[in-house]
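Progress note, sequence design subtask.
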């Protein structure tokens, strides 16, 4: 077997890719269905382009997911159809991807109604609690780009280069949590300052761009600081209001401290090193 064919067969086993912008649709046809349920397809092939080969995978899959609503009870049972189209040309850096995810509401064990369709320039995706997260793989010195869409509505929410920080406050249900995200939109908005985002799983209440003069691959660690503790992924504020500090740590000696008081980012109280600046985006 030719080496390039061996390379292709290995590549064809990898999970697929995906792209573009979040959109809604009410006219899209349901996936193919028969007495055994719904069906999707996967394929792999080689395209010959001007003396080089491009390896292409198209992968489709289904997942069921029960989703919580505002009150913390299950609001909907969804059928998610995921389609990923990935292309790799050895003489071109990176993996090009397009992703399309369609959510169907299960009205009974056999019938579904279209709920939303989202598209991103991404290579893979997965359900992450209250969100569907698309991942566009970074290339060379570029970081991964993560796009979080609301799982109930398909609304495009946070764009980051790392996991969201979840801040858990008083009460029950999804609305008792806040989320903090930070990152460059390397895929769709390359060259712009990174943006700090703060909000719920339904809406982003504040966006703050951070100008540092750093290159896009010089990303800080983002932490939530409260009650003498610093957390990267989960900050527990169940016994207090949403009052804490967002810390952007570029090095042991360089960090930005941005206070959140009573659920609002207070830019006028931020502590910045020389040469750094903050700007509200909404």
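Output:
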């Amino acid at each position: 077997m030719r080496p390039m064919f061996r390379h292709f067969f290995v590549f064809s086993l990898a999970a697929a890719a995906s792209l573009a912008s979040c959109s809604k649709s009410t006219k899209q046809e349901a996936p193919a269905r028969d007495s055994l349920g719904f069906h999707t397809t996967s394929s792999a092939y080689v395209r010959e382009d001007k003396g080089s080969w491009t390896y292409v995978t198209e992968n489709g899959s289904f997942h069921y997911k029960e989703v919580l609503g505002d009150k913390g009870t299950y609001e909907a049972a969804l059928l998610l159809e995921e389609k990923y189209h990935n292309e790799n040309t050895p003489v071109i850096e990176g993996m090009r991807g397009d992703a399309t995810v369609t959510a169907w509401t299960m009205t009974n064990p056999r019938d579904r109604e279209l709920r939303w369709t989202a598209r991103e320039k991404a290579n893979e995706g997965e359900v992450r609690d209250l969100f569907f997260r698309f991942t566009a793989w970074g290339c060379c010195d570029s970081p991964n780009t993560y796009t979080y869409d609301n799982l109930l509505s398909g609304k495009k929410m946070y764009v980051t280069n790392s996991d969201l920080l979840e801040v858990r406050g008083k009460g029950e249900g999804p609305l008792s949590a806040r989320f903090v995200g930070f990152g460059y939109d390397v895929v769709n908005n390359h060259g712009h300052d990174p943006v700090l985002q703060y909000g719920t799983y339904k809406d982003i209440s504040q966006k703050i761009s951070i100008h540092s003069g750093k290159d896009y691959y010089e990303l800080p660690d983002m932490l939530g600081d409260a009650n003498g503790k610093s957390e990267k992924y989960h900050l527990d504020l169940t016994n207090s209001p949403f009052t804490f500090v967002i810390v952007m740590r570029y090095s042991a000696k360089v960090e930005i401290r941005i206070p959140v008081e009573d659920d609002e980012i207070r830019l006028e109280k931020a502590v910045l090193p020389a040469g750094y600046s903050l700007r509200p985006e909404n």
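The first helix runs from residue 3 to 12. Work on this subtask will continue into the next period as scheduled.
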